[in-house]
Structure formats: C-alpha cells, structure tokens
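Researcher: Re-running this chain for the archive, since the previous output was lost when a drive failed. Same request as before.
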Amino acid sequence: WYFTVQYTVQADDADPLENTVTATGYYEDTPVTDTDDHELDIKHNPVLLVTKTGPNFASIGDTITYTITVQHDPASDGFNIYNVTVSDVFGITPIYVDGDDGDGILELGEVWTYTVEYTIQASDPDPLVNTAIATGEDEDGDEVQDEDDEEVLIEHNPIIEVNKQADVTSAKVGDTIFYTIVVQHASGSDGSDISNVTVSDVFGITPIYVGGDDGDGLLEAGEVWTYTVEYIVQAGDANPLTNIAIVTGEDKDGDEVTDEDEETIPIEEEVCPRLCVDKTGPAYAYVGDTITYTFYVYNTGDVPLSDVTVTDSVTGVATYQSGDDNGNGLLDVNEVWVFTDTWVVQEIPDPLRNTAIATGYYEDVPVTDDDDHCLDVVKRIVLPAEQPGICLDKVGPACAYVGDTITYTFKVYNVGNVPLSSVTVVDSLTGEATYKSGDTNNDGMLDVDEVWVFTSSWVVGDSPDPLRNNAIATGFFGDVAYTAEDDHCVDVYRVVDENTEDVVDNAADVGGPDDDAGASTNDPQDATTRTETGSGGSFPWVLLIVGMIGAAVTLAAMAIYRRRSS
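Model: Regenerated structure tokens:
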C-alpha cells in the first residue's frame, strides 16, 4: 500500500527537517506498528528588498535627507536574514532609526529604517543619483543583497557679479578713461558653473579680456575674470559721464544669469580765467602837478578771480575805489573794478613812462595783464603874445570782440594863448570825426582852455589784430595850420560758438572808460568760449608848441608823447 502526505516548509522549521511516519495495522484486534523517519535539508532563499527615497528637487547648498528601508522582498521565502548592513555610495554611513525587534535578525514582516543626510555640492552632476546597498546572510550562510537608486534633480542658482571701476575720479574733454571690469560669482551664489559668459559696454566698445579663466571657458566659483575698456571723453558727453558694464551667462539649467554695474565720472568744465587792465591818465602835465591815474580792471574770462590788485611801476600799489557790486571780494564776470593812484610830476624823467600790472587768482593760479602810459612833462613858461598850441587826446576801449561797434572819443585842447579856427579831427581808420561839444561860447573858435569833444565809431573786423589807428587834430591861426596826433590800440577777441566752433559777430556797442556814454556796454565775458589774440594797445600823444620869445625869435618846443603797449 502507498500513502502520501503534503507539508509546506515553514520559515521557522528546523534544518534539517525531520519527519517520522508510523504505520499501524491489526490482527484480530491486535495492533501491529512500524515507524520510519525522513530527514529533509531545507534550502533557504530569503530575498532582501532595499528602498531609498528622497526629494525630487534640491538646490546647491541644500542638505537633503534620504530614507532607506530594508525588509523581505515579497518573493522572499521568509527565512531569517542575519548580519544585515546598509551602505551609501557617497560613503556616508546610514543611521539606523528603527524596525528590529531587538534580536538583530531581519525577520519576515520587519521593516528596518535608516536615514542619510547629504549636502548638494556645486560640482555634483545633475541629476544627482545616489545608491543604497543592503547586504545580509541567509541561514545557509549565503549572502543576500539588494540596492536601490534615488535620483534628485538639482536646481542651479548661480549669481554673477560685475564691477566696473575707472582709473580717475574726474576727467576733461579729450581725456582717456581706463575702465577695469571684474566678473565673478557674487556673494550668495551657489557656486555652480556659469557658461557662455559675455561682457558688453553701453558705449559700444568691446571689453578686452585680460585674464582669470582656467581655460575651460566656465566661470567657476573662486575665479575672477578681468576685462578693460578705454574711452575718450567727447565734447557732447553728458556730465557726469555714466558708463555701464553688462555681463551675461548661462547656468547649468540653461537659464540666463546677468548683472550690470555703472561708473560715474564728473566732467571738469573748461574754464578761461582772464582779466584786462586799462590805464588812463592825462596826456600832459606841468612840473609840480599832482596827476591821477585811473585803472579799469575787467574780468574778460568766465570765472571769478580773487585777490585782485593793481601795481604801477611808478606809483606802487593802486587804491581800490569801486566795482565789487556784490561785495564778495571777487572780480566776477561782468564786473569792472576801478583803482586809482596819484603822482606829483617831476621835471625828470620826461616823458614819464610807467606800466601798471593787474593781477588776480583762479585757484591759486595767477592771471595778469598790463598796460602802460606816457605823460609829457611841460615846464611852465611865459608865452609871448599870439602863441598857438593844440593837443589831442584819443580814448577808446582796451578790448572788443569781432562784430562790436566801438566808439572813439577825441578831446582837443587849446594849449596856446590864442584861439584856433576850423578845428577838425581825422582818424586814419574811421575818417573825419563828429564834433559833439566844447565850444562853450559858440563862436566856432577853439578858445584858450576850451576842450572840444569829437567822436567816431567803427565795427570791429576779424583783422587787423590788434586794431591800431591814428588821429590828427588840426586847427588854424590865421593861415597857419597847427596839428597834434594820438593813436590807440584795441585788442580783438573772438566769440566762438561752442556748438559749431565758428567765430561769430558779437554786434555790441563798446566805448572807452572816458566815453561820456559810459564804459563798455558789452563785456568780453559775455561769450561762452573765447579766443584772444593780440597784445596790448598803444596811445601815442604828440603835442608841439612853437613860440617866439623876446625881441628875437626864440623857438620853444614842447613834445608830449604818450605810448601804451602791452
């Protein structure tokens, strides 16, 4: 007879599995038995299952936590697994959390839990793949193992920074400014590589790369890339001059990263500090006379001048009289300061020549101009009857602009002892002058001690420069003509249009300091940009007196000569 029996091997069955069978029969109610046993070697096939989980996304610098679980796989036969260890490919030892019942054996139904922490590095690949490996032994001493990967997508957030710096704190038109541009990772950047870095300049100048890259074309953490840009300041540039550098690149995700930096430089305005002095005084004087010199100081530039003084080679330091309209102690643009000084005329030298120097300062830089004067010294003598004499004093502005209408004033003196008739003044430039006043008794005669005034005007041209012209006064005693002459020099300034740089007409009326109409009505500083040529002017004065003294013919000559030159 054959019998069969089935048994499912259990995970907790002993190995080998011993099974005993007993056969029983009866003979007339007497049992007859026999036994037999069987030993079965159990083959153990436990299967490990390790599972690793983590976040889907992380940024560089983030610390992420992986969770690792170890248990029997559903396909496991459930036999115990011994000496279980868990490792991480990053070399970090997982930390056991819980799951074991305390016997150190991974039994069916148990789930052991571990954790691992990892900080994302800038050099990590994207995605970041991390593997957990679990290893153990079955009851046969055979190794059982499993592993699991976890993939984390890295979000890259590099921050690029550009700094632009000039080599100067200010500049003038025509100066070359050297800019240095530095590109690097900014503070707070995650340090991940930046590719396709380009640097541009708002002035349209391509920056020149100097150095800083290790040769791979990637802006890495710690690298400092340097560029340079040169720019020449133009006349039309804004003031202050602002220049912007822009840097652009891509992070590992293909997103654009950019930054910009500006450098602002003030442009120094071009200035033209300048002054002009006009010295006036009598054409002649007698020995013992006290004469007064008047000095007119003009600001012909475009900035105020400080510490303005006038020093004369004969009289010394002149005395300020007027002109500082606002009382600030500065010779401002459009102001005319007046100084005076006196001198007692001596017999020698004759003629008396002296030079005045006006000095002012712009930011400790001296600005000067000079003008001189010549005085004829006349000795007092007793003139015989019917001694004719004439003297001419011509005055006008010291300086004028192209296009100005200037007025010359001619003063004719009778320095003899008889009236003169048919008195005229003819100028070498303007022609015959116009009589204005002086014939106090209206007899048509230049009487003794009368002073006749004539005027004439002229539009200043571009040349000659300086403008020199001579005037001759003529009077008659009987049929004999007596003459005197004097000349004058005007410095010619040019007004230049800032935009076109062309010389333009000023078209203003300008008179001399002795003009009855007043001083200059158009100051040289009205122009924005000036070009000045010429030195000073000159005023020659000639007076000739011839007399007959005594019973015989005595010739007395008086020459009065005055010259101004600068």
